[in-house]
Structures are given as C-alpha cells and as structure tokens.
Amino acid sequence: MASEAGNDDSIHVIDFLDEYIKQCGIKKLKGKEMTIPKLLKLSGTIDDLRENRIEDMGAYVLFRALNNNCFLSAIDLSYNEIGDKGAASIADFIKGDNRVKKFVLKSNNISQTGGAALGKALLVNDTINEFDISYNPIGNAGGMEFAATLQVNTLIQKLLLSHCGLSTDALIALSTVLSATRTVKTLCLSNNESNFSRLTQSCANDVMMHLSNMIKANRGIEKLGFAKMGISDFMVVEYLGPAVLANRKIAKLDLSW
Q: How far apart are CA 44 and CA 51, in angstroms?
C-alpha cells in the first residue's frame, strides 16, 4: 500500500492531469480548432507544487495516464522528489513514446539505478533531442549508461549532466564516445569530479587529457560546460587550451568557478 504522502502526491498529480486533459480536448472557436498544449510543466518551483512535490507514486500515476495518450512535445518535472522508482516509470514511458522531444528532470532524487534505466530507455527512443538530468546523483552507473547510449543514439542534440556525481570512468567513457559523434550540440558536464585534489595528479590529468582529446576531435559541440571542475592552470596550458584552439567549432565554453 502506498504511503499517505504517496497517496496525496498521486491525487495532486491527477488534478493536473484532469486540467491537461480538458485542455487537450479539441474545441471549436470561431470555426477554428484550438491548439493542443505541447508543454506539460509540473516543476516543483511552481506555487501549486512547492509544498507537495511529485514523488515516485506521482510519477507512476502521471506516466501511466500519459501512456499512449500523449500529445506533448516537452515535459518539465524539474525540482521535484522523484527517485529511482519514479525514474523507472519515466523510462518505461520513454521507451514507448514517439512525440516528446524535450525532457527536463533537473534536481530530483534520481541515483545510479534510475539514471541507468533512463539511459537505457534513450537507447530505443527515436524522438527525444533534449535531455536534462542535471543535479541528480546518477553516478558511475548512470554516466556509463549514457555513454553507451550515445554510441547508438543519433538524435540527442542537448544533454545536460552537470552535478551528477559522474566518476572518472564515466567522464572518460563519455569523452571517448563524444569524440566520434557530431550530433550533440550542447553538452554540460559541469561540477563533476569537482575536487580533483581527491585524485592523484596523474589521474586528474588523465581525465582532463581525455576530455581535451574529445574537444579536439569533436566537430559538433557548440556549447560546452566545464564549470566547477577544479581545472588547474597546468591542465589549461597543457591540455584544454590547445584542444580549444584546434576545435574552432565551440562558440561558448564555460570554465567558471
């Protein structure tokens, strides 16, 4: 049985769905059909959800209702409290959906298991071109799954993985895969392995060498986020600077602290 909080959460989501379904009904206005809404925004920052954010049960109810009945092109569930179980419900939806192009899951509670499930779902999805899972601790397993997905998926143009607790292995795997793809135009890896002092100098340099090699080889990325990565002056001079000069494609590079 779902917890009391889970039941409240589900009821609250159903209220939003009722309103969405009402809006989706085709109505006549002066002989013209009204436009079906394309964006479903249930961000935890909006007033109606600030004190009752969507959790796992709410995500389950939401995507069960939308399954095979979705006319949306964008879904924003940022700043909620969705965990791995909710991520599994979202992953199941992504596998079967062919309409949504933009998915925002920023600042939830999705960890390695949920991150891996979402990465695998994107492997078989053929419509999503923007995916934001930043500020979720998807860690090594999630990061490695996204790297595997990018080997096959040729649709994703914007991928935001900042503050995801990506491991050294995940960052190197992503760098290796992205060296050979031109599809991704915007990539954010900011605030991962931010404290390079925890690594040996050779390990930290190895990560930066792989990231720089990716920059040098990639000819698709136009916006790249490396903020709060603990990048030293030596790394800039030895690896990053020469790679950026060789790239000539990147229009915006964020190295802020």
A: 8
Q: Taking the CA of residue 42 as centre, how many other CA atoms within 13 Å lie in the half-sphere pointing to its CB?
A: 27
10 Å CB burial of residue 2 (0-12, 13-18, 19+) is middle
CA separation for the pair 209, 175 (Å, rounded):
10
- Give the angle 5-89-102 at the CA atoms, nearest 5°: 110
Phi-psi region of 104 (alpha: psi -120 to 50; beta: other; left: phi over 0): beta
The answer to whether residues 133 and 106 touch, using CB atoms and an 8 Å cutoff, is yes
50-93 tens-digit pLDDT = 788 999 999 999 998 888 766 889 999 999 999 999 999 999 99
Measured CA angle at 197 (ends 174, 242), to 5 deg: 55
β-sheet bridge partners, residue 51: none
**Helix (H, G, I), strand (E, B), or coil: what is residue 30?**
coil
